[in-house]
Amino acid sequence: MSRIFLGRLPRDVRESDVEKFLRGYGKIRDISLKRGYGFVEFDDHRDAEDAVHDLNGRDLIGERVVVEFSKGRRSEGGGRDRRDFSGRGGRDGGRRPIYGPPVRTNYSVIVENLSSRTSWQDLKDYFRKYGKVTYADAHKKRIGEGVVEFESKDDLNTAIEKLDDTELGGRRIRVYEDKDRDSPPRSSRRRSRSHSRSRS
């Protein structure tokens, strides 16, 4: 699990506002709001890392908030029960975080033979074991097909090598490079970051 710190929060911010702000970034275990700041605990440290990377400095009901990893211990009380705000399930391939849109790149793979139960979040979780995933979609163009985009060509090649002809959601998937994607990436203004995740 990983815990992030939210700073410069509006005085009247509610838990529902924070839920909306973080929607699409994975399973949340706990939200604890104080006066002007708060803490959010994720199940997966990679979801916390994505939230910090994408949302730091973003607007939350009129304030540019600070989003960074928490350096202190988990406070007692003021939290909430485990809930899932990841938007998983069904054919919900088009749901995206309202804040911090995904980054498009030229390093794209096509994933075929997906189960109808496999969502874009499932794809992201499955593929990011082998690289930095910047974008994922499932069943958007056609049912049973998905798209995953990576930060680098090396990550793309590793994902194809490791995940082609593997099982996801009870189906053997096919993974291959999207040769037709040749438009310039839209992420030129986004800051880049070095890889911080271990590869297995």
UniProtKB/TrEMBL annotation:
Keyword Repeat found: yes
One of the GO biological process terms: mRNA processing
Keywords, in A-Z order: mRNA processing, mRNA splicing, Nucleus, Phosphoprotein, Repeat, RNA-binding
Gene3D superfamilies: 3.30.70.330
Organism: Nematostella vectensis
Name of the protein in question: RRM domain-containing protein
Compositional bias per record (Basic and acidic residues), positions renumbered to this chain: 72-95, 173-184
Gene Ontology molecular function: mRNA binding
